[in-house]
Design a protein that fits this description.
The chain is of the alpha/beta class. The chain has one domain: Vaccinia Virus protein VP39 (Rossmann fold, 3-Layer(aba) Sandwich), CATH 3.40.50.150. The protein contains seven helices and nine strands, in the order H-H-E-H-E-H-E-E-E-E-H-E-H-E-H-E. The chain has a nine-stranded mixed β-sheet with strand order 3-4-5-2-1-6-7-9-8, sandwiched between helices. Helix 3 links the parallel strand 1 and strand 2 (about 60-65). It is globular.
Length: about 220
């Protein structure tokens, strides 16, 4: 899945993954992490998610997003003043407690996330096809400091029944991707078809939303 795919999705406004409000699983399970108010939080592949506004009420937020359309829309739609700068390969858009790096996630370096204490991943891992998910997990391990915690939300469904994204990522794969450097605690599992008619209409026999608490081992 190349960068051009995501640029085209944003140009065509094909962003069904974007939620019109704050993810209820974030509100319910963020308190499971031991991070404190004021600890910086990293949101990979952040899009224009309103979850960042919710997180910013207690934390400085660092997001990374490939599409400049998404980054510009986040600040414009939320009426946030923005300052622009350049940092390495990234264009930086910043407003008070939210700092978005516009560029390729895989270009991030450890010094850019050295202060991060937590990660929120609702739409990054499941946005990637199977051959990129392992690369994503390894890059996270390279750029994140020891002891960081992560709230990870995935979707699991029969992959042959629907083309991603979002892609199916079951609990077994989460353990396979992160078992070397992380402790993994399942927090919640829920039948998503009960509230997501759009997936029922695509013919899925089931879709489960899973929430995990991960902690990076020293």
């Amino acid at each position: 899945m190349e960068a051009d795919f995501w640029h085209q999705r944003w140009r065509d406004n094909l962003i069904g993954f974007h939620l019109p409000g704050v993810n209820p699983q974030l509100e319910a399970f963020w308190p499971e992490l031991t991070v404190e108010a004021g600890d910086p939080v990293f949101v990979p592949l952040c899009g224009k998610s309103l979850d960042m506004l919710w997180l910013a009420s207690a934390h400085p937020v660092i997001g990374v997003e490939l599409s400049p359309i998404a980054v510009d829309a986040f600040f414009e739609e939320n009426g946030l003043p923005v300052e622009h700068s350049v940092e390495g390969r990234f264009e930086v858009c910043e407003s008070d407690r939210i700092r978005l790096l516009c560029g390729d996630f895989f270009d991030l370096e450890p010094d850019q996330l050295a202060a991060v204490r937590a990660v929120y991943d609702r739409a990054a891992l499941i946005a990637l096809p199977a051959d990129m998910r392992s690369r994503y997990a390894r890059h996270l391990e390279r750029i994140l400091p020891d002891g960081v915690e992560m709230l990870l939300i995935t979707l699991d469904y029969p992959q042959p029944e629907m083309d991603g994204p979002p892609f199916a990522v079951g609990e077994d794969e989460v353990h396979r991707l992160f078992h070397d450097g992380w402790t993994i605690e399942p927090l919640h599992s829920e039948d998503l078809l009960e509230r997501e008619a759009r997936f029922r209409e695509r013919g899925l026999s089931y879709m489960t939303e899973n929430v995990f608490h991960l902690r990076r081992r020293p």
